[in-house]
Request: fold
Amino acid sequence: MIAEPLNDEPCLWRVTERAVAALQRPDMHELAARLGTLDAADRYIRLLPQREDGADDATPGPRVQCDVPQRVRPMAEDPNCVERGLMRMALGELIDPRPVRQLMTIELDSGLRHTMLVEDGEPVWLDPLVPRNALYAGLHLFRNASGLLGLALPAVDALNWAVNLAKDGVKEGTKWVARHQDAVKDVARIAGGLLPLNPSALTWALSLAVPEAIAFGPDGISALMSAAKLLDSIVDTPSDAKGSTDGNPRNASFLTVKTPGVIADEIATTDTEIQALHRDITRTFREPTEQQRMFVEQWGRFTTEWGKFVEDHKGFFDRFWGGSYDKAIEFRQRALEWRKKFEALGGEPTTPPPTMPPEGGIPWKPILAVAGVGAAVLIVPSLLRRGLAS
Reply:
């Protein structure tokens, strides 16, 4: 059943009307009969080459007026996203008229707008250049803003959701397909009260899901945290209690939570320590020996690298990725090594040595209550990185 558009009505009503009119076309009936199923229609449309449109597009054929004129060729051999949705809406009605079909427009991470078909509340993936997860994220954000849906999932369901998100990052025909299937099977085992057979596959899948989940906004981050805590509860238990033999360490958290504010504090602390050491080096080696001169030149390259890092992380969203925290700590560790070299050359620092932060993340409940889920950063620690690389 063809229904009203979910949004962007002035434009998409016109496109919907073209889809209804296409139901009378003999060539559309012929194509629907040849394809036979909705899945076959989806595959057919995804394989069609893409022809973008724009203000200077001279492709012949009908158009409707939206914010810019939009091509609406029902049987296009090189459709844009609007034409893909139009074609699939018409083919779907001829193959199986029972589902409710609606068009909608979402905004992608790139800032571009994308028109898609929603069938019985689920996005239909038709454009190979747009990731499937981007469609689900766009639909979820629309429903969330409209007060229609919130993504609040039990832990096992959140894990299942995250592992399914990871599928977009798995290239067909590679060894990663089997690895993802192992993760899917282990989710089913966990749901049935059994231990996973391949925890590293779950770790790897969860690492792939991190950027995909963030696209869903605060709800996606919350669901990912829930999935991570569930995996923590399984992997952090000693192996003799769990009977696991996979060899993974049991004291590493899958995801550590930091906020952009915490990351900013770490950058500021590291900067203070580097600047103090820089003053000591500059004052001590005003007339350096050859060995000291080489040290000063190398130190200068280090401070230039650090200065660029600080400049690149001044904004809130510049610090949204957990790798920024790891990098700041790495710089602090390197500064400590430079301090030791300075002392070996006869230098005397005027400030105490840098102190490294304790391992581990911020407790879950305080971070959720104080910072808010939307301000949380997900850091992939060593255990998770090993799962990604293996």
